[in-house]
Design goal:
The chain has 250 residues and is of the alpha+beta class. It has 9 helices and 5 strands. It is globular.
Amino acid sequence: MEEQKVLQWTMGPAISAKQEGADATYFLAKRVMDFIIVILSMVFLLPLLAFIALLIKWDSPGPAVFRQERVTARRVVRNGQVYWEERPFTIYKFRTMRADAKSTIHRQFIEAYIAGDSKRMAELQNAQKAEEAKFKLVQDPRVTRVGSFLRKTSLDELPQFGNVLLGNMSLVGPRPPIPYEVELYLFHHHDRLRTVPGITGWWQVRGRSATSFEEMVRMDVDYITRQSLWLDIKIIFMTLTAVINGKGAR
């Protein structure tokens, strides 16, 4: 992004010291929980990560890990008011596409998705799709054989544990968008960026590829207004169930 946007917290221009303290306590506890879960998980996941990397390299030429610029948000407090400052960061994922893949088709689909243009989204699909996946680009010709499996099982997201350790993502929160998506946002769409983005979230476990863009924004904002450590834990367990069942994955 060429500019960093500073957006005010949805609770209004004035935030009480009590509320500010409660928010700070939650985000500190969230950070500690993220760190502990990721560190403990890596003990068991390292062999799996290495095996997936080898599969990707065997299946197609190119790096095993894909880097992409996304948008995160940083919580700042100025004069007793809480603001969320948008800023770019590098996200890590296992590569699921050909190394020479272009973003043109995804850009076009995102434009149609944000605009709510169902006809254009259908035109961009390369195969007959299930109704529940009409809001997600499926059968993408850029995706490799191994990449298709990784997406279906959500294993391509595992390198984002590194982002969690770095602090630019959390385990739970709205998905971080690509800068060219944010450029298309209306003002109220930025409300979904007023918290730390996550690997999984309320939208992923409740709607994912079955929801329109406006519905996704409403779900993300609903999570932000209700976020708590207990809700985060609930979403983590719901995510494990969704991954096992393959719900919403393509």
